[in-house]
Amino acid sequence: MIRIVLADDEPIIIKGLRKLIDWEAFGMEIVGQAYDGNELMDLIDRHMPDLVISDISMPHRTGIEIIKELKEKEIPVKVIFISAYQEFSYARDAVAYGAIDYLVKPVVKQQLEAVLEKALSMISQHHEEERRKGKLQLLERKNRHEELQDALIRLTDGNLSPNTSAFREAAAGLKGPLITIMLIEAERLKDSSDRWTEKERKLVEFAIGNVLQEVVQDPGAGYVFVKKDRHAVIVNHDSGEQAAGLADEIRDKIWTFLKIKVSIALSRPAAEAERLAEAYREAEQALEMKFYAGLGRILPYNPLQTHEARTVELYELQWAVIRSMTEMALEDVEAALDEWLETIKKETFGNRSLTVSTCFSSMLFIIGELSKSGVQLPGRFLDKRELQDLLASYETFEIMSSQVKRLFRHMCEEMDSDSGNKDKIVLAKVKQYIEEHFAEEITLESIAGMAFMNPYYFSSFFKKHTKQNFKQYLTEVRMKNASQLLRNTDLMIYEVAEKVGYNNARHFSDMFKKMYGKLPIDYRQDGRR
Question: Which residue intervals of the chain bear CATH 3.40.50.2300?
């Protein structure tokens, strides 16, 4: 609708204008009426109408003064003047300052309708020009943004010559005196899948990008761009403490607004843009350290210390594990595993792929020697590809270490258990684990890994023994505990959701309604009647 303000120092004139024509039929809406020039200007400032129909001679400010002020302030309001005076000087001045037309009282309906048609055409043309201008500006901003993103990627690759305009434009925003590169990597969502879906990943990237824009780019502290599916930040600062403080702020705000944990790696400060390729490699190396330091940390770059390989020591520790397992000395098995894994960590520290491959080859040696000694191992422990994929999937050394130890403990148990009890033992442990950890991140893959089974095999195994699929069972456990919290506590719905393993209150409510036939709030109210 076209918004209109009417103005005249005689109320009867405004009343007559309101009734003179069918404004709605013209696609117009009267949003205000004024009885003097000051009141009219105030209405224009508050409502920003598309069209003003005003008496040219009013108290406090004349129509000519109003239209001059509109022109000075560049307010795009169209004006139609009316007056009891048939003086051409008024009409000439009004049109000179941009009025659409000048009507003489009493206003004739046909003349007003004709002028309104003219106004509609001009307003539509103005809106179309504004839309076209807005699209062009948006496209221009998008092109500049893409060009800058490309320049920053090439700059951190070392492929942008200092002699190019792209380099100079990018470097112009890096005022220093120090420049640090940060890499931000989000940890996995706490949901029912082991990996994010493509849609979830894009939403997370978009949300994190908005936080970085607000904290870094909008205040002019540096640049934000995406490289290798990771958010990267180039920061201007005065000291190393400033860069670390900004990293803390970014991590805290992403957690506060999005409830997502991120790891943030920092390069060493550089003094010039030419060193950013080296700084980017340092940040990448620092980010690899989250495998050893843990998730959700600030990871400053530190040069790696070289170690002499102690192959003999690792070989002897492998045999210590083998001996303790064949002797079924469980306390000795734990001690041997701890020393063996700690040595792998020391020997390969800083190189995740080397750590994983060393652990994999060492495990194959242990399993192979156990088989040679006549120990009857379940066939799934001998699946090399499955074992390799499992080790590579762990996000930290601590998680990998605990799962490897769990695997060997389970292996000991199966070695000591007859086949008739084996499945019952596995199932009982899985159920016990779910009952104790339902509020944590539990996935089919993680439970299958705990049971040392292929996820597809475990899914079939679980359904065979419980007559329901794993996800359904886990949901029932969570909903059972949620119902108790709803009945017995005053926790908010989102707090109940978090306590039973959901970080999305709406998703929790949908799942709860699917099971109990009513939303959590209704369930609580019904239970207290």
Answer: 2-129
Q: Retrieve residue 253's tokens.
A: 């705000």
Which pLDDT tens digit goes with each residue over 6-60? Answer: 999 999 999 999 999 999 988 899 999 999 999 999 999 999 999 999 988 889 9
The answer to whether residues 482 and 500 touch, using CB atoms and an 8 Å cutoff, is yes
Residues 51-73 as b/e (b if ≥16 CB within 10 A, e otherwise) read bbbbbbbbeebbbbebbeebeee
Q: Which residues, at least 6 apart from 4, have a Cβ–Cβ distance to it below 8 Å?
A: 23, 28, 29, 30, 31, 49, 50, 51, 52, 53
- The H-assigned helical ranges of 217-239 are none
Higher local confidence (pLDDT), 468 or 325 = 468
Which burial class, exposed, middle or buried, applies to 156 when counting CB atoms under 10 A from its CB (0-12, 13-18, 19+)?
buried
SS3 sequence of 64-78: HHHHHHHHHHCCCCE
DSSP string for 80-115: EEEES---HHHHHHHHHTT-SEEEESSPPHHHHHHH
Domain boundaries 422-444+458-529, corresponding CATH code: 1.10.10.60
Task: Name every residue whose Cβ is closer than 8 Å to that of residue 73 and which is 6 or more positions away in sequence.
Answer: none
State yes or no: pLDDT of 381 exceeds 90: no
Q: Which two tokens stand for residue 150?
A: 């490309």
Nearest alpha-carbon partner for 207 in 243, 254, 261: 254
Summarised one tens digit per residue, pLDDT across range 238-287 is 887 889 999 999 999 999 998 889 999 999 999 888 899 999 999 999 99
Model confidence pLDDT, tens digit, residues 409-425:
887 776 665 444 456 65
Q: What angle do CA 439, 445, 450 make, to 5 degrees?
A: 80
Here the tokens at position 104 are 């003489």
**Which fold is adopted by the domain 2-129?**
Rossmann fold (3.40.50)
Contact 94, 103 (CB under 8 A): no
CATH code reported for the domain at 173-287: 3.30.70.270
Q: Determine the Cα–Cα distance for residues 431 and 417; give it in Å rounded to an integer.
A: 19
Give dist(CA 186, CA 261) in Å, integer: 6
How far is the CA of 84 from the CAs of 101, 104, 106, 154, in angstroms? 14, 6, 7, 70
Domain span(s) for CATH 1.10.10.60 in the chain = 422-444+458-529
Stretch(es) of the chain classified as CATH 3.30.70.270: 173-287
